[in-house]
């Protein structure tokens, strides 16, 4: 199937063939609490990407206000996402994930924290960005600890590729931020190389050793990060800005 990928915020387009996705479908069995959260909150807080009407997602209506939009790709079980949304009530926080129990768990966390600035999407982030996000409208895109697909033959399944970064960059507003984090060395190097080569992006920390960003104090420590430290892997953050 052939898609069209904008190369910048203008109307210029180039053909883009997407043949693999970066995720795998997992089981959907939920705990009693997760099922309750899904039944109670999903109709208001969540939607399936493939159920969205054609055209841009109307975040102003969905959130009930106009505010900067932050998109987190791959929210997992939602521990980090809930804390980040709670720490920034002034933004409209969108989280997209394919794992249904993870989204349900995130809604449980949102309930506990009484969050009002969080909305959830289930499905393919590339489809969301390509078909339902207007160019130049996101204030930030966050991708924390995406599946590293460590085997070389699977690297093509990694989320951070030239085409995906090109798409993300086109959707960021001028001055908007792409923030990446990973504990896999060769994936970090791949991310850095791809982002450095994207003309719409500038490394905010290019003067730092290696071009890596200092670890932000406000990014919560995840179980993946703790595991990385236990196993002797270094966590790299990358923060790029839309020019």
UniProtKB/TrEMBL annotation:
Sites where the protein binds substrate: 151, 183, 222-225
Enzyme Commission code(s) on record: 2.1.1.33
UniProt entry keywords in alphabetical sequence: Methyltransferase, S-adenosyl-L-methionine, Transferase, tRNA processing
Binding-site list for S-adenosyl-L-methionine: 72, 97, 124, 147
Catalytic activity field: guanosine(46) in tRNA + S-adenosyl-L-methionine = N(7)-methylguanosine(46) in tRNA + S-adenosyl-L-homocysteine
Pathway: tRNA modification; N(7)-methylguanine-tRNA biosynthesis
EC category name: transferase
Pfam short name (any one): Methyltransf_4
Tree of life domain: Bacteria
InterPro entries registered for this protein in UniProt: SAM-dependent_MTases_sf, tRNA_(Gua-N-7)_MeTrfase_Trmb, tRNA_methyltr_TrmB_bact
Similarity annotation: Belongs to the class I-like SAM-binding methyltransferase superfamily. TrmB family.
HAMAP family noted in UniProt: tRNA_methyltr_TrmB (MF_01057)
NCBIfam families: tRNA (guanosine(46)-N7)-methyltransferase TrmB (TIGR00091)
Function (record text): Catalyzes the formation of N(7)-methylguanine at position 46 (m7G46) in tRNA.
Protein name as it appears in the record: tRNA (guanine-N(7)-)-methyltransferase
Lineage: Bacteria, Bacillati, Actinomycetota, Actinomycetes, Pseudonocardiales
């Amino acid at each position: 199937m052939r898609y069209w990928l904008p190369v910048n915020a203008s109307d210029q387009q180039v053909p883009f063939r997407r043949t693999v996705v970066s995720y795998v479908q997992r089981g959907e069995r939920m705990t009693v609490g997760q099922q309750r959260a899904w039944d109670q909150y999903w109709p208001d807080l969540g939607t399936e990407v493939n159920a969205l009407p054609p055209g841009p997602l109307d975040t102003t209506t969905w959130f009930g206000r106009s505010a900067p939009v932050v998109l987190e790709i791959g929210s997992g079980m939602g521990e980090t996402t809930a804390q980040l949304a709670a720490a920034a009530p002034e933004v409209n926080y969108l989280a997209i994930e394919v794992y249904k129990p993870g989204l349900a768990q995130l809604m449980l966390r949102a309930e506990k924290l009484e969050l009002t600035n969080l909305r959830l999407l289930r499905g393919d982030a590339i489809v969301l960005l390509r078909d339902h996000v207007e160019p130049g409208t996101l204030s930030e895109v966050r991708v924390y600890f995406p599946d590293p697909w460590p085997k070389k033959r699977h690297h093509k399944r990694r989320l951070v590729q030239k085409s995906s970064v090109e798409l993300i960059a086109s959707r960021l507003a001028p001055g908007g931020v792409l923030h990446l984090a990973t504990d896999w060395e060769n994936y970090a190097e791949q991310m850095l190389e791809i982002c450095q080569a994207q003309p719409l992006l500038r490394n905010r920390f290019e003067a730092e050793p290696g071009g890596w960003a200092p670890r932000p104090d406000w990014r919560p420590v995840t179980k993946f990060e703790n595991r990385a430290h236990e196993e002797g892997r270094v966590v790299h953050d990358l923060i790029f800005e839309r020019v």
